[in-house]
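Hi,

I'm pasting everything inline rather than attaching a file, because the server keeps stripping attachments. The sequence lines come first, and each chain or strand is labelled.
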Amino acid sequence: MLSSRHLLGLEGMSKEEIQLILDTATSFKKVLERPIPKVPTLRGTTVANLFFEPSTRTRISFELAEKRLSADLVNFSASTSSVLKGETLRDTARNIEAMKVDMVVIRHSSPGAAHFLANCLDSAIINAGDGAHEHPTQALLDMLTLRERFGTLAGLKVLIVGDIEHSRVARSNIYGLNTMGAEVAICGPATLLPVEIEHLGVKVYHNLDEILSQVQVVNVLRIQLERQGKGLFPSLREYRQLFGITAERFKRVGRELVIMHPGPINRGVEIDSEVADLLAGGGEIRNVE
Amino acid sequence: MKPRQNSFLFKNGLIFNTANSQFEKGDILVVEGRIEKVGTIPSEDFVGSIIDLQEKYVAPGFVDMHVHLREPGREDEETIESGVAAAMAGGFTTVCCMPNTEPPIDNRGMVEFIKKKAKNLLVAVHPIGAVTKGRRGEELAEMGDMLDAGAVAFSDDGLPVASSELMRRALEYSKMFDIPIIDHCEDLSLSEGRSMNESFTSTQLGVYGIPSVAENIVVARDLMLAAYTGGHVHIAHVSTKDAVAMIREAKKRGVRVTCEVTPHHFVLTDEVVKSFDTNTKVNPPLRSQADVEAILQGLQDGTIDVIVSDHAPHSIEEKQVEFDVAPFGLIGMETSFGLIVKHLLEPKVLTPAQVIEKIVLNPARILKLGSKDLTPGNPADFTVFDMDSEWTVDVNRFKSKSRNCPFDGWQLRGMIHGVFNKGQWWSESLSSTKKI
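And the predicted assembly:
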C-alpha cells in the first residue's frame, strides 16, 4: 500500500512503495500490447492536468496514461506564474476542484507548488515537476527502464551528468535510486552543483572521463541554453569539452554503457548527435517521457 | 493626600532596579504620567486607580527597535494603531518603525506624519528615517531635518546601503549627530532571485539559496567603514555565525558597532522551510543550527546587544502563494517575549537581567531614548509580566492585522500582563479599582 494519496516526490518514499509502483507499471505495460490498449481502472475519475510551465512530453505522457486508464480529463495550461496572471495558484486550483475533480496533476516552476496544492485541496495531487525540486514520475520511469534492462536496481552504478542545481529530474532520481540501493554519482561544473549535494548520498565528480569508466548507466541532463551568459560556465563550447557525452568519449569507454536523457536534447552540447541517434535506435530512451 | 489628576498606585510588584539588576518587592506611585515614588506605599490615603500586580514582575517598558508598521501604503496589512496594539500585547511601550513604507519615511513630513498618528497612543513610536532619498541608495536623505522632527536612527532596511561610498558618507554624516546607521546587510548580487538559506536543505528542496556570505560580505564592509570613519553602525538582524564572530572581534578593537537579532533567528533553522510554509520565508533567511548556536553564544557574551522582532506584516493573499514568489517577512511583536522566555530564559542562556538589557536598556542607550530607570521623576514607562505562565500562540487572537507568523500553535512561556506609558495603563488580565 502507498502511504500517501498524493505523489509529491520520491524523497521519503519507501523501497516497498517504489517497488509497488514499478511492479504496477510493468503489468500495465502489457496493456499497451493489447488490440484495444485501454483498461477501466479510472472510469468515473476526473483528472485535471494543470500545466503552469510549457511541457510537451510530460503532458502528453500524462494525458495518454489517463486516457488509457479511462479517466475523464481536463487540461489547463498557463505559461505565466500566478503573480503575473493576477489569479493565485490557490484560486485557480480551487476553482477547478469546485468542478468535482478527483485528481490534480501539476507542473509548476515553483518548488513546493504541488505540496501547496496538497495543503489547500481535497483532491489527490500528482507532482509533474515543481521547479528544481522533484519530478517523481520521470524518475520512476527512469528506474523502470533500468530495472527492465538490468533486472534490479540494487548495486547499479548510475552517473548523472550536467546541471544538477536546476534539475528536478536529478533530485528525484537521486532520491529514488538511493532508496532502491543503486550507487549514484554526479558530475558537472562546480557552479551547477548545489551545495552539500554529497549529503544526499552521492559521490561528486568534476572529471567526466574518470567516472564514466566506472559506471553502467549515464543519465544526461539537458543544459538549458538560457543558462549560458549567466556566469555559470564560460561557454557551451567549453561545457561540451568538459561534460559533453561526445562520440569520442562514448567510444573510449569501449563497453556497454546505458545512456539516458530526459529530453529535450541539445544535440552537440550535452550529447553528440551521433550518440543520441545510437540511443534512439538502441532503445535506451524508449521509456523517456 | 489631596486628590490629583491621573494617579495610579501599582501595588505588590517585583520591580526591576537598574542599579543592581534585581527585582525588588514594592509599589509604584504614578502621578501625571511620572513616577512619584517607588517602595512601600500605603493605599489608605491614596486617591486614584489602584492596581494589584499580584507579585508580577515590573521592568522598564520593553523596546522593539525594528518593526514595520506599513502605514502609509499598506494599511490593509498593519496601521500605526494596530501595530501599537500588537506592541502593547507583546509588552512593548516603545517601537521604532522602519522607513520602507509607501511613500518611504525619507523626509521631515513623513517623520511628522508618523509622530502625529502615534501621539495619543500608549506606545511611543519612533520613526527610523531612510538613509537615502526614496531608499534608492543614490543620495543621502535629510538626516538632520528628520532627526529634528523625531527620527531616532537611519536605515534603508529591507535593502542594504549597497554603495560603499554612500555607506561611508552616511556613517560620516550621522556621526555628527551621534546617531547610528542601521544596515540591512545583504549583497544583492548574491541573493537576487533566491528564497531561503543556501544549505543542504535548499539543495534537497530545489529552492535557490541565499548564501550566508551575502550577509557576511556586507557586515565585513560595514565594520571596516565604521572603523575608518568612526561612525556608529548598527547591524540589523544578524543571522550568521561569521557575522557574530566578526562583530565580536570588531567590538574588541573598539569599532563603534552594535547589533541585533530576532527571536526567529535563534529559535528556528532552515529545516522548517521543508514545510514550504511561506511564513518561514524571511530575510535574512532562517539559517543552520551552527548559526543558531553562534547567535546564542553572541547573546550570552554580549556581542549581540539587542533583540528585535523585525515584525513584518504581510497580507494572507500575498503569503498564500508559491514559496518562491511569496514576500519575505513574518510578524513577531506578540510572540517575541514568549519566545525569549521559552528559548533563552528557560534553558538559562540569559538571565532575566540580561534579557532586560537586550529588550530595554541597550536599545534605549543605542537610540538615546533617555533613562528607562524606574525611579522617581522619570516618566512612568513599564511592562508587567510573568516568566512562568504557559500559553499557546493563536494567530487569530493577534492584535496585529496580519497573521504571517510561523509560531501558530506553539506553546510558549511568559505572559505580558500590562503596560504603562504616556499616562495610560493597559491590561487585559489585571483589574484596577478606583478610589475616590
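Chain B has a mean pLDDT of 97.

If the labels don't parse on your end, tell me and I'll reformat.
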